[in-house]
Design goal:
By secondary structure, the protein is α/β, with parallel strands linked by helices. It folds into two domains: 5-49 and 308-457, Aspartate Aminotransferase, domain 1 (Alpha-Beta Complex), CATH 3.90.1150.10; 54-304, Type I PLP-dependent aspartate aminotransferase-like (Major domain) (Aspartate Aminotransferase, domain 2), CATH 3.40.640.10. It is 34% helix and 17% strand. It has 15 helices and 19 strands. The protein has helices at 15-19, 52-61, 74-93, 108-116, 137-146, 159-172, 193-202, 215-218, 222-225, 250-255, 290-304, 310-327, 357-368, 380-385, 403-419; strands at residues 28-30, 36-38, 40-41, 101-105, 124-128, 149-153, 177-181, 206-210, 229-233, 244-248, 266-270, 273-276, 333-334, 347-351, 370-371, 373-375, 392-396, 425-428, 431-434. The strands form six sheets. It has a seven-stranded mixed beta sheet, sandwiched between helices. It has a four-stranded antiparallel beta sheet with strand order 13-14-17-16, with helices on one face. Strand 11 and strand 12 (273-276) form a beta hairpin. Helix 2 packs across helix 11 and helix 4 (108-116) packs parallel to helix 5. The chain is globular. The chain starts with 14 loop residues before the first helix and ends in a 30-residue tail after the last strand. Mean pLDDT is 93; it is low at 1-11. The protein binds pyridoxal-5'-phosphate.
């Protein structure tokens, strides 16, 4: 089976990987044939590796780490200043307006749950049925407790028709908030954000953008798009140290219920009353993730310092290479939500009808050292819409991805379809595994209790 990959130029595709090296870019993994291969990480959409610069920054600041906000000691003051400066960097990275507020959260899920808790009482929320569960469930489930209601609007066949549907729905009844993905975690596609925001604002509706897949891949500007809120995750933005962010309009965040009740969020507490701080402290009770925030800020600075358009060009070249390669393999179907959407970010989902996605993903890992994701990607309604309720395979790229990784996936898939796997595979605890896996388990503290082969490392299957 031949592919058209060879026809696409390699030139400059790998330039960004050299500009912004990631930790573990050369890590090798064992294959079933007894050899080792550099890991082809095509799962950036789930979690991206740390930038080397981020790891170096964490190492630099750890000796300065101490309690923040309430410590009189010298290092407490240094750590407080570093934490607050990280907040400013994160806000600047998404081009926040001067009166916006940046709250350090755990991740996008946390940010959107926080926002769901501050919608003014009685406010209605509108969401499309293409969203990741993180931008679906907080609105549906917090609705009861917070006195707001949520409408889930089915998308239409094209972007143009979806915009018309949105416009009509926004005009039909008053919504406090429209919350929309900046880029789908399934296909990398998006609606034209600025048009969506203009439609919503014309009806007095605010807009929150789920930036989990947009911010790390393209960057984002609150000021330029006029979006009201942006939520994103550090672990998808090359800073896997447990911090995320919610940035946006101050008024709801100052007035809404504190996300967590506890120390740091209050001004004064008596037995019969509590006086809460305004945002951001209002929503950051407990000891904050100082190192995570500093790591995220470093990643933001490094991404912002890339030449304009370099990241988008890198990802578009890699994704284009992937599309060309996969399209040339008979029996592979690439998922698209809309035929008329703008070029997607570096995320691509495909199916191989007649072949179980979990089996294909296990084969790619065990026999080729490739990491992809299979399942329904926490976007069950969208997968149903795409006729892929049995699951699909997702490959996603980022700054550390090379053209070799993309080519390896295309070659491995061709080989799978022409020759089949060399080993037997079976389902163990809900996930596909090699029968009698002989790959050695990496020797690292924390895995000592497991048997010495990779078969032992399969965790329980969670929500896919
Ligand atoms: C589009 C999108 N939104 C939200 C999330 C949730 O992100 P997190 O798990 O970091 O909270 C994800 C994670 O994959 C995502 O892709």
């Amino acid at each position: 089976m031949t592919t058209t990959v060879e026809r696409l130029s390699c030139a400059d595709v790998d330039a960004v990987s050299a500009l912004l090296p990631v930790v573990g870019g050369n890590t090798t993994v064992p294959l079933l044939d007894g050899t080792q291969r550099t890991y082809a990480n095509l799962d950036y959409a789930a979690s991206a590796p740390a930038l080397e610069a981020v790891a170096a920054r964490v190492t630099e600041v750890l000796p300065l780490y101490a309690s923040v906000h309430r410590g009189a000691g010298y290092l407490s003051q240094v750590s407080t200043a570093l934490y607050e400066s990280a907040r400013q960097t994160i806000a600047r990275f998404v081009d926040a307006r001067p009166d916006d507020v940046a709250i350090i959260t755990r991740n996008t899920t946390d940010s959107l749950n926080l926002l769901a808790g501050v919608i003014p009482p009685g406010g209605r929320v509108l969401v499309l049925d293409v969203e990741h569960h993180a931008n679906l469930l907080p609105w549906v489930h917090s609705a009861d407790g917070h006195g707001h209601s949520t409408t889930i609007l089915p998308i239409a066949r094209t972007v143009a028709e979806t915009l018309v549907k949105l416009r009509d729905e926004l005009a039909r009844q008053r919504y406090a908030l429209l919350t929309v993905t900046g880029a789908s975690n399934v296909t990398g596609e998006s609606l034209p954000l600025e048009e969506v925001i203009a439609l919503a604002h014309a009806e007095g509706t605010r807009v929150a953008v789920d930036g989990a897949q947009l911010v790390p891949h393209r960057g984002f500007s609150l000021a330029a798009t006029d979006a009201d809120y942006i939520a994103f995750s550090g672990h998808k933005t090359y800073a896997p140290f447990g911090a995320g962010a919610l940035v946006g309009r101050r008024d709801w965040l100052d007035a809404g219920s504190p996300y967590l009740a506890g120390g740091g969020a209050v001004r004064d507490v008596r037995a019969d009353r509590t006086v809460w701080q305004p945002a951001p402290a209002r929503h950051e009770a407990g000891s904050p993730n100082v190192i995570g925030a500093i790591a995220l800020a470093e990643a933001c600075d490094r991404l912002a310092a890339l030449p304009p358009g370099a990241l988008a060009a890198h990802e578009e070249a890699l994704r284009g290479r992937l599309v060309a390669g996969l399209s040339a393999i008979e029996g592979v179907e690439i998922a698209r939500i809309w035929p008329d959407s703008a070029p997607p970010v570096g995320v691509l989902t495909f199916t191989v009808p007649g072949h179980n996605p979990g089996l294909v993903a296990a084969y790619l890992s065990a026999e080729h050292g490739i990491g992809v994701r299979d399942g329904r990607f926490c976007a069950h309604p969208l997968l149903a819409h795409l006729n892929a309720s049995d699951g699909a395979i997702r490959a996603s790229v980022g700054v550390g991805t090379t053209s070799e990784a993309v080519d390896r996936l295309v070659g491995a898939l061709s080989q799978y379809l022409s020759d089949g796997p060399t080993s037997g595979y079976e389902i163990v605890d809900g996930c596909w595994a090699v029968v009698e896996d002989t790959r050695p388990l990496v020797v690292v503290h924390g895995l000592d209790h497991l048997a010495a082969t990779a078969a032992a490392a399969c965790g329980p299957a969670l929500d896919d």
